[in-house]
Design brief:
Oligomer: single chain
Helix content: over 70%
Shape: rod-shaped
Radius of gyration: 26 Å
Length: 243
């Protein structure tokens, strides 16, 4: 009976730990990072970046000047009105406004895109990186005379390929994540199965020094395997281009 209570308490502790870790992603270096927004909402916002860049390219191809282009894109997303934090309009408003003012005054649009929006968005690193990349497109066009619309279209294609690759990695890693979680529970399931068969594995482990040694070694190997598998999955999810 004592062994059964110990098994139930261990299972409850495992459930609490899994529930606590399920909402906190692990960075590739093993640091726990805080998620400011739900993953699906952030992915939905990031998925609209290629559309925004293609709209900028289309406005330029239609003959709009840079100043008029920023005014048009601001009207499309209604960035002039207050928007709830974390929405696409709220994320786009600071940089679009800064770029539009710079274009009207004849200042550097690239600098406005890179630094004109104040602090980093905090929603997703992809948004901050996108503004830096757009600034680079503007600088390349100004220095070389390359058509800005063409550069933006190619950059939109690159963004879409990155999003597609990230989605493919998430799909491919769903199986390994489920397998890792299942393997983490197998030792506890084995103890429970032994009790159901009439054996007292916990009593054997706790009744003698050798049993305590085996129990400690098994718990250490379980923890090591869990950490190792999480690092492998996090490294694969990050993608080869960011390592």
């Amino acid at each position: 009976m004592t062994g059964l209570w110990v098994f139930l308490l261990a299972g409850a502790a495992g459930l609490v730990l899994c529930a606590d870790q399920s909402g906190r992603p692990v960075a590739p270096q093993g640091r726990t990072v805080r998620r400011h927004r739900p993953a699906r909402a952030t992915d939905a916002l990031a998925g609209q970046l290629p559309v925004v860049v293609r709209q900028l390219a289309s406005l330029l191809r239609s003959g709009r000047t840079p100043a008029a282009m920023w005014q048009d894109i601001a009207r499309v997303y209604d960035t002039g009105s207050p928007a709830p934090a974390g929405t696409l309009a709220a994320v786009l408003a600071p940089r679009i406004g800064a770029a539009g003012r710079a274009a009207e005054l004849g200042l550097s649009v690239a600098e406005a895109l890179r630094h004109g929006g104040g602090p980093r968005t905090g929603v997703d690193p992809g948004f901050d990186r996108a503004w830096t990349d757009l600034a680079a497109c503007w600088e390349v066009s100004e220095l070389t005379g390359a058509p800005l619309a063409l550069l933006l279209e190619h950059y939109a294609d690159h963004l879409q390929q990155e999003l597609d690759a990230a989605a493919a990695r998430r799909t491919a890693l769903a199986g390994p994540k489920a397998t890792s979680a299942l393997l983490a529970w197998l030792p506890l399931l084995g103890l429970g199965l032994g009790m159901l068969m009439g054996v007292d594995p916990l009593g054997t482990l706790l009744a003698m020094p050798a049993g305590w040694l085996v129990l400690a070694a098994g718990a250490g190997l379980m923890a090591l395997g869990r950490v190792w598998s999480r690092r492998l999955v996090a490294g694969a999810a990050d993608g080869p281009e960011r390592r």
